[in-house]
Amino acid sequence: MRFVVGAAEDLPPGTSTIVYPEKVKSGIGVFNVDGEFYALKNTCPHMGGPLCRGTVRGTSAAEVSDDGALDVRWERSGEIVACPWHHWEFEIKTGKTIFRSRQKVRDYPVEVVPPDVLARLREGVETIPVSVEGATLVIEV
User: Fold this and answer.
1) How far apart (Å, rounded) are the C-alpha atoms in residues 101 and 90?
2) DSSP three-state, residue 61
3) Edge-to-edge, what's the strand order for the sheet holding 16-19?
4) Which of 49, 54, 72, 140 could bridge across to 44 with cysteines, CB 3.0–4.6 Å?
5) Could you give the domains of the chain?
6) Is the CA virtual torsion 118, 123, 126, 128 positive or negative?
């Protein structure tokens, strides 16, 4: 099933939205990471928290400098979402945890379609009212 999210221009880089297709009661978070779109199920696999309502941020990484000193640096800004309940962190691009774990959030393919294709998609597609002036985001549910 395809679900029309809305106009791509309404979701600029660094922003996200949560949509509620009929088949996914918890909702799906749609994220714009540096102009690329990704979608994750809005359920944290740890304890079922509303993952996509969490903070989008980066993460810290440790490295040892040439002189043997331990240093911590901030990296991947805007690529990580942290569950608001227990702060488990997941990569927006893959749905994987940033720590070693088999836990993963379900991800969904996002397609950016031109306006002329939207009319053909609307037949038999669950939609929400949107203003379409440019490309449109569609997720495969």
Assistant:
1) 11
2) strand
3) 16-19, 28-33, 36-41, 107-108
4) 49
5) 2-140 (2.102.10.10)
6) positive
